[in-house]
Amino acid sequence: MMKRGEKNHHHHHHHHHVINPSLCFWLLFMLGWISRTSNSIGCNAQEEEEKFRFGARVYNTSSVAVSGKLNVHLVPHTHDDVGWLKTVDQYFIGSNNSIQVAAVQYVLDSVVAALQEDRNRKFIYVEQAFFQRWWREQTPRKQKIVQKLVKRGQLEFINGGYSMHDEAATHYVDMIDQTTLGHRYIKQQFDVTPRIGWQIDPFGHSAVQAYLLGAELGFDAFFFARADYQDLQKRRKDQTMEVIWQGSKSLGSSAQIFAGVLSHHYEPPSAFSFDIDSTNPPFQDDPRLSDYNVPELVDLFVEYVQNQSKEFRTNHLMWTMGDDFAYEYANTWFKQMDKLIHYVNLDGRVNALYSTPSIYLDAKYAANETWPLKTGDFFPYADKSHCYWTGYFTSRSSLKGYVRKLSGFLQAARQVEFLVGKNLRSGGPNTDNLEEAMALLQHHDGVSGTEKQHVANDYAERLAVGSAEAAEVFNSALAVLLSSTPTHERPHQYIMGGRTNDSLEQHRLLQEQEDIARKNLGSVSAAGLKLEQCFLLNISYCPTSETELPFGKSLIVVVYNPLGWTREEYVRFPVSSAALEVIDGAGNSIPSQLVPLPKSAYRLRKLYVDGNDASVADNSLPRFHLVFSAVVPPLGYTTFRIHKASSASTTTSHPYVSMESSTAETLRAPSTVQLTSGQIELSFSGTTGLLTQLRNANTGKATALQQSYCWYNGSDGRTAEDPYQASGAYVFRPNTSTCFQLKRVMQMTVFRGPLVEEVHQSFAPWLSQVIRIYKDAEYAEVHFTVGPIPIDDSLGKEVVTRLTTNLTSNKEFYTDSNGRDFLKRVRDQRTDWDLIVKEPIAGNYYPLNLGIYLKDNTTDLSVLVDRAVGGSSISDGELELMLHRRLLHDDGRGVGEALNETVCNSNGECEGLTVQGTFYINIGPSEQSAQWRRAHGQKVLMPLQFAFSVLEDGNGGVIQSPEFSAMNPHYELPKNVAIVTLQEVYDDDDSKVLLRLANIFEVEESEILSKSATVDLQALFSNREIDEVEEVSLSANQKKSEMRKKMQWRIEGAAAAGDSSHKNTPHGDPMIKSTPHRDPMIKNSSCGDPMIRTKYMVVLAPMEIKTFLIEF
Q1: What is the enclosing helix (H) or strand (E) of 163?
Q2: 773, 784, 805: which is closest to 693 by C-alpha?
Q3: Which intervals hold domain Glycoside hydrolase family 38 central (predicted)?
Q4: What is the pLDDT, as a whole number, of residue 1057?
Q5: Banded pLDDT at 611 (limits 50, 70, 90)
Q6: Omega cis (within 30) before 790
Q7: Rounded to whole angstroms, how far apart are CA atoms 120 and 138?
Q8: pLDDT tens digit string along 873-926?
Q9: Cα 143–147–148 angle (5° rounding)?
Q10: Between 20 and 30 A from 292 (CA), which of 42, 547, 609, 1030?
Q11: Angle, CA of 663, 667 and 670, to the nearest 5°
């Protein structure tokens, strides 16, 4: 069962032997006339040979690797998608088998039984989403047996994440989360830490996967099956299938990893696939029966092995003995492999053995060979000349957006869950379900958009259910904090060895409040403050914020900031009333502005709300977005109160606090329009309505910038070259290189006011956008609405936005790797081979999770994105993003459906799915642009989170702490450090806090911020005193100090290993890498008792992530 059009990588030559000279030998052996030469297990050869003769076959499977021969490491495995053609639960249970016969529960049942029959047998297992479903159903006795198999090395966990995550459409924060979840289970149940990365099916491989989710996890190697067909041809020829991969220029050789492309996709050559449904003849070794075939199969095996050995270095080769959902009946595989090993080793030309990737790797390491160096990544991936798998970078854009949105929400919910104490045993809501749903979605047929529609629906439902529970946690935790007495008045000095009485008292109060909160975590929250989430703000729907506010009622908006920096940002949400006043946490009236909703918002709201909530009448439509500036402390919140303005507050006597409605100009006749923010100015054409220029007010420099939309026609596969290859969920194949332009704006309206200026543009009934610039912003924000994409002309469409400047970018542009490092791309070029260009558009597309930029000598054009998308630079000075795809044909890679997403109203009328999203444009001097990309990128990744409530004015007293920060007053993280994770976890029943900090700059990225940064861990937790800090591995499954020493590989042209070493000193410096206690360097640097103040200082070098388990 080769998946997704991988068939016939190799041509299998089956030899029909007329007469084989070794046949006599075999027959003699079989009948017991020649005594066995291989080592016998336990008893002497005579006895075994007797057993053999009477049909009780005993095969010798005890072989280990030998020198002087080719060693074939047979690695039994199953590749189990946690959702693809069926949902994760259907795959586990074995239901919906008319789609695909697959049942993981039987795979694990039968593998465990088969391993018990022979101690030499081995098996590797990967996906924890399935293993955990199985494990919790097993009896304690069965669990003990499995633990023993793991201890004996017969069953090995490889990769060990909850899923085998995608590498294009995933963000590093979510990749770390899902891996940590899987590793936590394995550590708790088996006390082992996986050491091999196994990303055999994802469609292209990222630099972040290699160095961060490889080397930095403590993995010794990383194996995968898919690489570009042109790349593979060259690698097979040059013996560069296995390399030492340095994925990060900042971490260099300190984060390198042995990386290998598997020889034959991830299954064995077809004659040696032994699954229960295989049509191959098995080993028939009884000469008394017909079809005796041992010599033929041994010869064929040896021939394959000798051919494969020409492509690999050393005398060790790996064969992956398995496939998608293989081993549902494990006996057929193991029985045949027992025979294979036995007869191949009797033949003696090559040596076959049961093995695992770890055993294989150790053999490779012992060979002391030299290996080629690989930098960069393995994108994009093509399996044939017109088949670039770059469509899935955008496929199911709305699902990708939902995943990213809930990623930000999960981080915030886990933070406040920690601040008030996690519900573990009380059975109240917690964030675990959302964490598991998010981990599932990182799968390479999840967020990638390459699953069947019913599976995408199942994924979305899991996210919705998980987020509803996390919302209860978030709302009730915020309510506890809001109704607690403020703690920030207390003195911040610590007394040696303990707390001041003052803070002890505070601690006791906090504990009491936590206890009360735990009892009330249902619908009633602390002291009657009930907060609501508005998950449907994307369709301008928030019943709480839209409430008509008569005098005597206020809308309370709590704005939470999950970042470690204070942020000042403009926030917006729908309201129904025009005369409103906004009061901040300190009780001051602050400026606000009303902006009418764009027309597209009404249509979408009606379509989606109608379908979901019948109680919404048309006349209750909100009329405006209310916009105001929120200044929110780090890891904390600010509360705003919005109420009906008394007539006085809108008069000219309070010009600065008045609520301003935006002035509107609807332009039917074209005229030149400008939007300004104080920092930048945008100009729009008088003839087309399109954006034409961006001027930077600080530098005075104007750059011609056109922003427009166009669509590629997705091929239907009816082409002369490569017929049948259509554009689909995986593959982007435009019919021609032409992108059909939407040439002019059909209608536009401009809104201006003191806080934001925006232009609403409609290009077609199915495509509109809002371009806005907030006061003092150095960037423009574009909010697009694309859909329903029309298909009445029977043409599939892939919708793109293009930004065109006159910057001379010399074919070069930069895209991020999973939201972390930026990699340089060169149009129509690959670093590892001379590219033969067959697809000038699709072959230049790369995955974006953070953004894309290009530059000339002085200026950068940068675009940041709010979800995973595909992007490119097809002409110099120009960037493009693919925003949405609607296609009418399957692309033949296995999913068996066209990517044609629809949505239906309550009457069952359906239309194509509409996608909305936001991207951000900045043009500026390179240094400022580099800083903006990182700082703004963090804000997009971890957006402010809102909670709403309507309060009677008499009940204002429930809010005791309108402002809060978990950090020390006046402390914030350095500008180049971000909090990646702050989560309460349970480790042997002890509550600990998992904290990850990241330096978000690469070496040489910014003159000012590409430096090491120091963080005071204690300052992050103002009302708790740290008791102990342990630095741990990235997935928190081992102490940093106890991690295996990295393997030191010899690299071809050895200088390569050292050429980036000057950059690696901070990362490799043992003083900084050790646990952060009492770092002598920073001993007396700050006020207060030096011993206490500097006990928990940690240093992060560029692009370094450090992970800690903290106890209070």
Answers
A1: none
A2: 805
A3: 387-463
A4: 41
A5: low
A6: no
A7: 24
A8: 999 999 999 999 999 999 999 999 999 999 988 788 899 999 999 999 999 999
A9: 120
A10: 42
A11: 140
Whether 1009 contacts 975, CB under 8 Å? yes
Q: How many residues in the chain?
A: 1112
Q: Which tokens sit at 738?
A: 């032409």
What is the distance in angstroms between the CA of the first residue and the CA of the last residue of the chain? Answer: 52
DSSP 800: E
Distances (CA, A) of 1069 to 317, 1044, 1103: 36, 17, 15
Burial (CB count within 10 angstroms: exposed 0-12, middle 13-18, buried 19+), residue 139: exposed
Helix, coil or strand: residue 170: coil
Cis link prior to 357 (omega < 30° from 0)?
Answer: no
| Ordered DSSP codes for 1018-1039 | GGG-TTS---EEEEE-TTSSSB
Name the token pair of 25: 């030998």
Alpha-carbon span 35 to 33, nearest angstrom = 6
For 243-282, the DSSP string reads: EEEE--TTTGGGGEEEEEE-SBTBS--GGG---TT--S--
Sheet with strand 747-752: strands edge to edge: 663-667, 747-752, 756-764, 767-774, 780-786, 915-925, 859-865, 851-855, 812-817, 821-826
Using only C-alpha atoms, the chain has a radius of gyration, in whole angstroms, of 31
Distance, CA of 501 to chain centre? 45
Tokens for 573, please give them: 């949400």
Residue type, 443: H
The larger pLDDT score, comparing residue 485 to residue 316, is at: 316
Neighbours of 800 (CB within 10 A): 26
Pair of tokens at residue 623 = 């009329």
CA–CA separation, 65 vs 50, rounded Å? 28
Q: Helix, strand, coil shares of the chain as percentages rounded to 5?
A: 30, 25, 45
CA dihedral in degrees (300, 301, 303, 308; nearest 10)?
140
Kindly indicate the confidence band of residue 28, based on its pLDDT and cuts at 50, 70 and 90: very low
Rounded Cα distance between 514 and 160, Å, is 35
CA angle 602, 604, 609 (to 5 degrees): 95
Q: What are the tokens at 312?
A: 């690999």
Two tokens, residue 34: 């020649």
Structural contact between residues 594 and 624, judged by C-beta atoms closer than 8 angstroms: yes
Q: How far is CA 724 from CA 728, 785, 1050, in A?
A: 12, 32, 45
DSSP string, 681-731: EEEE-TTT--EEEEEETTT--EEEEEEEEEEEEE--S--SSSTT----SS-
**Residues β-bridged to residue 116:** none
Q: How far, CA to CA in Å, does 40 sit from each of 44, 295, 419, 788, 1047? A: 6, 22, 63, 70, 35
Q: Is 342 exposed, middle or buried (0-12, 13-18, 19+ CB in 10 A)?
A: buried
Q: What gap in Å lies between CA 622 and CA 237, rounded to an integer?
A: 65
> What tens digit of pLDDT does each residue of 825-835 get?
999 999 999 99
Alpha-carbon distance of 864 to 779, in angstroms, equals 10
